[in-house]
Amino acid sequence: MATVALTATTTTAYIAAPRRQLVRPANSLKVLPVTQKASRRIHASLSAAAPLSSAKPDDLVASILSKVMQTDRGVLLTSNDHKKVAEVARELQQFCVDEPVKCPLIFGEWDVVYCSNPTSPGGGYRSAIGRIFFKAKEMIQVVEAPDIVRNTVSFSLLGFFDGEVSLQGKLNVLDEKWIQVVFEAPELKVGGLEFQYGGQSAVKLEITYIDEKIRLGMGSRGSLFVFQRRK
User: Fold this and answer.
1) Which residues lie below 8 Å from residue 87, measured CB to CB, with a gap of 6+?
2) By the 8 A CB rule, do 56 and 64 touch?
3) Range scoring the smallest mean pLDDT among 93-107, 119-133, 198-212
4) Would you say 150 and 183 are in contact if contact means Cβ atoms under 8 Å apart?
5) Which residues are CB-neighbours of 95 under 8 A, at least 6 positions away?
6) Which end of the chain is more exposed for a tag (fewer CB within 10 A), N or C?
7) Would you state the torsion angle of the CA atoms of residues 124, 169, 165, 134, taken in this order, to the nearest 10 degrees?
8) Per-residue pLDDT tens digits for 42-89
C-alpha cells in the first residue's frame, strides 16, 4: 500500500526589466541575504502549512478498534467520539487497495463492531425503543464466494428469550469500490417459533478499506461501518 507524501514547492518569480534602462547609483539597490534564522522561519512556516502524516495502517487499525470496542457498536459514543472515528477512517482510506471489491480478503466471517447510525444494522431492533426490549448479543456478516451474503443478529428478548434475525442476500459488484446486496425477506426465530416477514430489501456499500483484520464500509446514505474479522 502506498504512503501519501506531501512536498512543498518553492516557486521563483522573474520580473522582466523594462526596455528603457535607468541609471541608478551602485549602492541604491541592496540585496539582502537570507539569514539562517530567517531560513528556519520560512521552513517552519512551510512545515506548518503542509504537515506530514507518519501514521501507519496497523497503528490506525488499532486506533479505530480502540475507539469503537465496548461501545454497543457505537450507540454509547458522543458526537465528538463519532467524529474521531470518522477521522481515523478517512486516514485509513488512503491505504485501501485499488479495487477492494476484487480483493479475496472480502470473504469470511465479520463482526459488526461499529456503525455511525445505530439503526442501520438491525433496523428497528436497534432503535431507541427496540433496544429496550431487544439486547443485541452478536451481529455477524458472512460473505461467501462467489456472491452470497448472510447477516445475523442474535438478541435476548426482555432478558428471558433468546432470538435471532437472519437475512440472506446476493452480492452484486457495481464498480471497483461499490457493491449492492439484495436481501430476501428476513427470518425471525424466537424460542421455538420461526417465520419470515416483510419483503426484499437492498443496500449499497462502498468498501473504503480492507485488510486481514478489519473492513470499513460507507453506506449510500453516509453511514460508516467497521467490521472486524472473526477469529
Assistant:
1) none
2) no
3) 119-133
4) no
5) 1, 2, 3, 57, 60, 209
6) C
7) -30
8) 343 333 333 335 789 999 999 999 999 999 999 999 999 999 999 999
Strand partners, 142: 109, 150
Grid cell 430489501 in the structure block, residue: 201
Distance from C-alpha of 187 to C-alpha of 214, rounded to nearest angstrom: 27
